[in-house]
Amino acid sequence: MSQCSQGKPIMHHFCRHALMLIFIPFAFFCAAAENIPYVAVTAIVEHPALDSVRDGILAELQENGYIQDENLKFQYQSAQGSSANAAQIAKQFVASKPDVIVAIATPSAQALAATTKAIPIVFTAVTDPVASKLTKSWDASGTNVTGVSDALALDKQIDLMLNIKPALKSVGYIYSPGEVNSTTILNQLQQKLAPKGIKIIAVPAQRTADIPAAARSLKGSVDLIYTTTDNNVVSAYESLAKVANESKIPLIASDPAVVPRGAVAALGMSYYDLGRQAGKMVIRILNGEKPGTMPIEIGNVTQLVINKSAAARQGVIFSDKIVHSANKIID
């Protein structure tokens, strides 16, 4: 009994110190983690272009010394194509109080802008932030929102279509009516193609499952199908390419990431570089700049990618001009 009664205080003392040795470093880590920069990123859906944006953001942060899980807390969530999920993620992110939230694609940016007026938001892969009501103009917003647009010069897109189909008379356009990006491009295409005597046949597709039927409805009535960064269309690109191959309708895109997935050619943004550009804005905010003082930027790296195999399947013969000007050729 005497050993026991003497041993308990000793053991208790030992255990208390052991626990302190375990928990003090953990507590220190937690406190330190609370003080490191915290960047949260959300995308409306996962597909190669939007994944490249996320990778570009991370690469830019790392190149500037922000290392994930070392001196940077980095969180990423995809809304899996659901606006309801995007709204839920926005609420979760805002509650966790990051230093900057990056929204990839319009629906995610709109969900965040509706949820917080205080936490800095950097949008990217958004074509028209004004039409999307994220900002009132392309100048500095004066709010918590800034970002990088993927708006493209449509004239160059139309030049590419005419290079591939010199006798072009009709363009098919499949789009999601709920995506402002897609409806904005449709309006602009109609305005630019009509004076050239080219009609556009637009087919709405509410869901990714509707894409093949929408493509089949264009068989025999269009010279090519033009696709933008519509998230539904990009998510289901293989099914669209399958119909295009069967129907021998060339697919021309504004997203280079879909060329390996079946498009004949694409002239568009490098989405990885778009992410790096957004990453630079994130770093400026982490360094103390206010998003409201930073004008909206437009992606500054474009590239032409062509796919010879897809061209053969869809009945296209590239001109020497296109082949020589391509930044990347997929055999």
Mean pLDDT: 90
The biggest beta sheet is recorded as: 7 strands, mixed
Rg calculated over all Cα atoms: 25 Å
- Order of strands, widest sheet: 7-6-8-9-10-12-13
Q: Approximately what portion of the residues adopt beta-strand conformation?
A: 15-25%
Q: Uncertain runs with pLDDT below 50, 5 residues or more?
A: 1-32
Q: Give, in order, the helices and strands.
A: HEHEHEHEEHEHEHEHHEEHEEHHE
**Terminus-to-terminus distance:** 85 Å
Helix content: 40-55%
Structural class, from helix and strand content? alpha/beta
The coarse silhouette is elongated
- Work out the oligomeric state of the chains in this entry: single chain
- Number of DSSP helices? 12
State the total count of DSSP E strands.
13
Lay out the secondary structure.
Blueprint: H1 2-35, E1 38-43, H2 48-63, E2 73-78, H3 83-96, E3 100-104, H4 106-115, E4 121-126, E5 145-149, H5 154-164, E6 170-175, H6 180-193, E7 199-204, H7 211-216, E8 224-227, H8 231-235, H9 237-247, E9 251-253, E10 265-269, H10 271-286, E11 297-298, E12 302-307, H11 308-313, H12 320-325, E13 328-330
Parallel strand pairs: 1-2, 1-3, 3-4, 4-5, 5-11, 6-7, 6-8, 8-9, 9-10, 12-13
Antiparallel strand pairs: 10-12
Written overview of the protein:
With 331 residues, this protein is an alpha/beta fold. 45% of the residues lie in helices and 19% in strands. Helix 2 crosses helix 10 and helix 3 packs across helix 4. The protein contains 12 helices and 13 strands. Strands 7-6-8-9-10-12-13 form a 7-stranded mixed beta sheet. A 6-stranded parallel beta sheet has the order 2-1-3-4-5-11, with helices on both faces. Strand 6, helix 6 and strand 7 form a beta-alpha-beta unit.
